[in-house]
């Protein structure tokens, strides 16, 4: 006779605003898309777009891995990366890998779509297609798995979810935007509500957490006059309820380390 056994596995997360996360999983500390110091400016064009916060975030200690999803400055932020230890292992999209290699990082692994990297036999990271950047470049999203427990985390910071990720369902935690950001004529920069709803339906996560918006950040510049935003975490909760989806929505506070318990189900005889 097979009996369902439920046990709880814990992980820790810290959100540093925007798309910057510290994920503690499998006994490892993984820093994702870090922007911790200075302003966020694309191609030195501060008149076009500039992100600022009231104070810098502290540089986390004992980082085992830096994980970079895209090569643009809001994911591969040069002022932050210059301050971090260049001997820390880096896993990056091909575009992001070029940036950190130019900065002098010594242990850089480039992951193309479908490729995997294993950190100390404890955490497996698999790259999937993520956000399109221009007409030809598609950056990375990531599936992280704690090998001892099979605890899984899926991260896609712009809401572009590849159908290939469905093969990994069900996922324990999804980190992706809830808010839509659109430029007239050019289309969506970030796909939020509907994209997040579809990924909940396909991946069946226990918990979903927003990224890419909110926090202690102010944005200015010419581009902000044209960007249109829509959606909120509360609206997304309502959307889940209307679709009879049990996934929990959590909203972390910037800088706060929090513990996330997740149930794992196994079968025993």
TrEMBL record:
Pfam families: Lactamase_B_3. InterPro entries: RibonucZ/Hydroxyglut_hydro. Gene3D superfamilies: Ribonuclease Z/Hydroxyacylglutathione hydrolase-like. This is MBL fold metallo-hydrolase.
């Amino acid at each position: 006779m097979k009996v369902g056994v439920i046990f709880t596995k814990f992980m820790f997360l810290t959100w540093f605003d925007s798309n910057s996360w510290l994920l503690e999983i499998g006994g490892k500390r993984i820093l994702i898309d870090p922007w911790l110091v200075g302003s966020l400016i694309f191609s030195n064009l501060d008149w076009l777009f500039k992100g600022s916060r009231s104070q810098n975030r502290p540089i986390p200690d004992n980082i085992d891995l830096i994980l970079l999803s895209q090569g643009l400055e809001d994911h591969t932020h040069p002022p932050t990366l210059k301050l971090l230890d260049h001997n820390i292992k880096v896993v990056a999209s091909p575009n992001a890998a070029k940036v950190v290699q130019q900065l002098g990082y010594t242990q850089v692994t480039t992951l193309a779509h479908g490729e995997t990297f294993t950190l100390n036999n404890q955490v497996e990271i698999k790259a999937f297609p993520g956000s399109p950047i221009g007409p030809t470049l598609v950056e990375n999203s990531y599936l992280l798995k704690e090998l001892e427990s099979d605890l899984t985390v899926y991260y896609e910071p712009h809401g572009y979810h590849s159908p290939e990720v469905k093969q990994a369902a069900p996922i324990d935690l999804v980190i992706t935007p809830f808010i839509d950001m659109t430029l007239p004529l050019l289309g969506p920069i970030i796909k939020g509500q509907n994209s997040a709803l579809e990924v909940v339906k396909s991946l069946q996560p226990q918990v979903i957490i927003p990224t890419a918006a909110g926090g202690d950040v102010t944005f200015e510049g010419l581009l902000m006059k044209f960007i249109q935003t829509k959606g909120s975490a509360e609206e997304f909760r309502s959307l889940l309820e209307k679709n009879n989806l049990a996934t929990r929505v959590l909203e972390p506070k910037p800088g706060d380390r929090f513990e996330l318990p997740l149930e794992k189900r196994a079968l025993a005889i």
